[in-house]
Amino acid sequence: MTAVPHDRWMQARAAVLDTGRRFDSLVGSAPDPAAMATAEWSIADSAAHVLSIAALCLLLLDPDAPPPPVPGLRELLSATNVDTVADTNSHVMRHLTERDIGVVRRDMQASIERILLVTREADPASTVTWLGDAQVTVAGVLAHLVNEMLVHGWDIARTAGLPWPMPDADAGLFFDLFLVDMIRNSYGALLNAAVRMPRHRIAVQFRSAHTTTAILELHQARVKVVAADDPYDVSLTFRPARFNLMLFGRISALRAAAGRDVVVGGPRPWRLRAFLRVVHMPNNARP
What we know:
Layout: H1 6-29, H2 43-61, H3 73-79, H4 85-95, H5 101-118, E1 127-129, E2 135-137, H6 138-160, H7 168-185, E3 202-207, E4 214-219, E5 222-226, E6 234-238, H8 240-247, H9 253-258, E7 262-265, H10 272-278
Parallel strand pairs: 3-6
Antiparallel strand pairs: 1-2, 3-4, 4-5, 6-7
Helix pairs in contact: 1-5, 1-6, 2-5, 2-6, 6-7, 7-8
C-alpha cells in the first residue's frame, strides 16, 4: 500500500474545501452561464461536468451515496482508458441534464461537504477502483477533484474575464497523490496499450518545488515508478499549475516552455515525446 504523508492528506482536504468555495464563487460570478468555456462546453456545462466528477468521487467513497442516473456507468468506467475519457464524459453529460447554475452550485457544495465528511476518518492510503480499473488512493481521489476544479475553473475564468488563481501547492497534489501513487498501486487499463510503444526504455525525472521528485520509467509497454537514484533520460522541471494546464491541453508545450513553466533537460531530452505519447492525460478542452 502506498503511504500518504499526514501533511499531504491534510493539504488535500484543505484544498478541496478552499478550491470548492472559490469555484462556487467563480461560477456564481460568471455573467453568462451560456457563454462557451471550451469549443464544446458552456460555462454551465463545465460546472455540470465538475459536479459529475464530484458525484463519481462520492460513488467511490461513500457506500450510501446513490449512483448517478447514468445507465451502465460502472461498466463504462471500467472500460474507459485515457483516450476514451472524452467519450465517457459525453455519455455521462447526456444523462446528467441539469444546467441551472443555482442548482449545480448547490449540489456541488453539498457533494464537497459529503466527500469531506465521509473521508474524515478514512485511511488516505486505502484504494478505490478508478477508470480502467486503476487503483487510486482516497487521497488521490481528492487530489483529482481539486485538479478538475482548477482546470475547468481556468476555462470558466478565461471566458468570463475573471481572475482565477491556481496555487502551485494545490495543483501539485495531482502529480503526487493521483498520478504517481496510481502508477505505484496499479493503473489497470487506463493507459492505452494500443498506441505505438517505444522500443527502448525511457525514464523521465519529474521535479518541482511543490512535489516529491519521482522517476517514471516506460519499458516493455509498462510504466512504473523507479528508485530516485536510477538513471534517467529526461529531466522535467515544472510549475504544477501550468504543467497541469499543459497536460490537459489548455496551453501548448511551446507556450509552457517559453514561459519556463516546464523546463526539459537530461542526457536524452528528445525521448520525452515518445514517453508522452503513451503517458498522457485526457484532453477535454477540445480547442
